[in-house]
Amino acid sequence: MTSTIPNIGLGTFRLQGQVAIDSVRNGIEAGYRHIDTAQIYGNEAEVGQAIAASGVDRADLFVTTKIWIDSLAGDKLIPSLKESLRKLGLERLDLTLIHWPSPGGAVAVAESMAALAEAKAQGWTDLIGVSNFTNAHLREAIDAVGAAQIATQQVEVHPFLQNSRVVEFARSQGIHVTAYMPLAYGKVMAEPLIGQIAARHGASAAQVALAWSLQQGYAVIPSSTRRANLEANLRARDIVLSAVDMAQIAGLERNERLANPDGLAPQWD
Ligand SMILES: NC(=O)c1ccc[n+]([C@@H]2O[C@H](COP(=O)([O-])OP(=O)(O)OC[C@H]3O[C@@H](n4cnc5c(N)ncnc54)[C@H](OP(=O)(O)O)[C@@H]3O)[C@@H](O)[C@H]2O)c1
Fold this sequence. Notes:
α4 packs across α5 and α7 (192-201) crosses α8. The chain has a domain at 10-186 and 217-224: NADP-dependent oxidoreductase domain (TIM Barrel), CATH 3.20.20. By secondary structure, it is of the alpha/beta class. Strands 1-2-3-4-5-6-7-8 form an eight-stranded parallel beta sheet, with helices on one face. The protein contains ten helices and eight strands. The protein has helices at 17-30, 44-54, 77-88, 109-121, 135-145, 164-172, 192-201, 205-214, 227-234, 243-250, and strands at residues 10-11, 34-36, 62-67, 93-98, 125-131, 150-156, 176-180, 219-220. The structure holds NADP nicotinamide-adenine-dinucleotide phosphate. NADP nicotinamide-adenine-dinucleotide phosphate binds at residues 11-13, 36, 99, 131-132, 154, 180-186, 189, 204, 206, 221-226, 229, 232-233, 259.
């Protein structure tokens, strides 16, 4: 267990069965020590299988799961977390997030946060946090458990959706940001400006997009089914973008939100 969030993690959304096992196995072999799953991804067992087979000490891995919306009630959250642990074959999570705020406010933020804080107090998870929270939700979460308890706000951030209002509010409260879909699910690779910056650095567009997030202090959790991409993405840590590069990429903002599911997405900031 490590108590800080490693800045590059391995995303596992959409990865199922053997594809999930292979991606996590290849990722750990390539050097990833932070793995991001969720109850709704339906791959916690496969993620756990790959972790067990890796031979890497549990103490050196950082594993995140996310509580699905059907388990946000005070009496459901801890049992669902225990079920995640059973599937993952782990005794404790490093980080557990509320995946989405309860649609329509069916379960109060304070109720879920209290249950999550209790899960931490009972030792089921080392850190707790939130995902896809609006600033109003985050304010409620802070009021419920205190900003110091909230290890991260995991939100969609990439050059085309920089989410500045959400990022700025989290930061103003001292809360770390994790950028999900940091490659805009592959779209950054098609952006000519990112390609030009990548060429200047002898890097790939994916690496430049990841470096842009890392340089702002975010953790990133790109996913890949290809070993070469997994390895290349880790090397984004070696790239140093100039202030001009950073500003040019910032100019690509176009409020292009990719994760916006009907019936689930809140009223975004
Ligand atoms: N909290 C939430 O609600 C939430 C929502 C969405 C995502 N997430 C998390 O964020 C993670 C990342 O998001 P994502 O997987 O949707 O999108 P992403 O990481 O932005 O993009 C993944 C796509 O990029 C491609 N790719 C990866 N590395 C590449 C490289 N070096 N060169 C070229 N292509 C590359 C992958 O294809 P290949 O497989 O071919 O490499 C895949 O199609 C998820 O897996 C999940 O863990 C969280």
